[in-house]
Amino acid sequence: MTTSEQTVIAPGSWTLDANHSSVNFTARHLGISKVRGRFNKFETSFVADEAGKAVIEATIYLDSFDTGNEQRDGHVRSADILDTANLSTLHFKVTEPVTVAAEFEVTGEVTLGNVTKPVTLDVEWGGVQVFPGDQKQHAGFTATGVIKRSEFNIAVGLPTAMLGDKIAIELDIQLVEPSA
User: How far, CA to CA in Å, does 164 sit from each of 58, 146, 170?
Assistant: First the structure.
């Protein structure tokens, strides 16, 4: 199946196809290698208007942190790093509606605990295609960006030589067209 170049999307509230979406991250460890992982639980809101502009929000549940290593994941969830007992979610919200194009930027605010910072994501639009399984239009995109853990008071006691300050984020999101 080929990807459509269509960037005009139907107005309404598109729903997340969680089976075909992921929220991934990469962090430097000891300055010499990268640790990759994902968040297994997240939600999105993508509402397009008649002009094709979209309002986007996303919530990531931090306790769904997963690198495939239970011991490391437990440590990252602890108060030493993410402190998921006190910080349950990371929330992203665009600051103004965006127009979907082949490539575009999404500027918004990330809130983690009581800290809110601006973040810009680079987005590559995958297009719109009918999914044979449900016969509905599905839209897809990949968004990438970087946040700094120091700006969100994450693992403040760990030097950047141990855990890099920059955390690369990659979202592969597939949405299902609004119901008629």
Answer: 24, 12, 17
* 3-class DSSP state of 111: strand
Q: How far apart are CA 55 and CA 45, in angstroms?
A: 8
pLDDT in tens, 81-113: 888 888 899 999 999 999 988 899 999 999 998
How many Cβ atoms from other residues are within 10 Å of residue 147's Cβ? 20
Q: Are 106 and 121 in contact (CB under 8 A)?
A: yes
Q: 65-80: buried (b, 16+ CB within 10 Å) or exposed (e) per residue?
A: bbeeeeebbeebbeee
Per-residue pLDDT tens digits for 36-55: 999 999 999 999 998 889 99
- The DSSP 8-state label assigned to residue 63 in this structure reads G
